[in-house]
Amino acid sequence: VQLVESGGGMVQPGDSLTLSCIFSRSSLTPYRLGWHRQTPGNQRELVADIISDGATNYADSVQGRFTVSRDRPRNAVYLQMNSLKPEDTAVYYCNGIFVDDKGYDYTYWGQGTQVTVSN
Questions:
Q1: Helix, strand or coil, per DSSP, at residue 74
Q2: Average pLDDT estimate for 30-40
C-alpha cells in the first residue's frame, strides 16, 4: 500500500492548513488511519487517528484544534489543522494499519510533508 501526503507548507500562527493523504487500493482493509509528526532529534509522535468504526483519537496538544477525517470512496484521510502554533512545526506523516483476510496487520507510512508555523 502506498500513502501519499500533500498540503504541507509555511503558515503564520493562528492560520489553518489541511493535510491530505491518499492511499492506494489493495486487497488489504484499512483499520486505523492517522497522522504522526516528528521534529529533529525527537521521536515520531501520534497527532490523531481514526479507526474503522469512526472513533478518533487526538494528542492532548492538538485536541480541539485539529480534526482527522476519512473519505472512504476516495481512499483518503485528512487532517484539518486550525489555530496553528509554532510548536506544531514538524514533518507530518500519514500512516495506516491495514489487515488481510486472515487478520494479520500491516503498517505503512507516507513520505512526510513539512508544516512550518512561523512569523
A1: coil
A2: 96
C-alpha cell of residue 61:
496538544
Torsion of CA 17, 19, 5, 47, to 10 degrees: 110
The per-residue pLDDT for range 56-99, each reduced to its tens digit, is 999 999 999 999 999 999 999 999 999 999 999 999 999 999 99
Residue 88 dihedral angles phi and psi, to the nearest 5°: -85, -5
Q: How many CA atoms lie within 13 A of 15 on its CB side?
A: 16
* Beta-bridge mates of residue 105: 99
Closest of 74, 95, 68 to residue 25, by C-alpha:
74
> Residue 26: is its pLDDT beyond 90?
no
Displacement of CA 115 from its chain's centroid (Å): 12
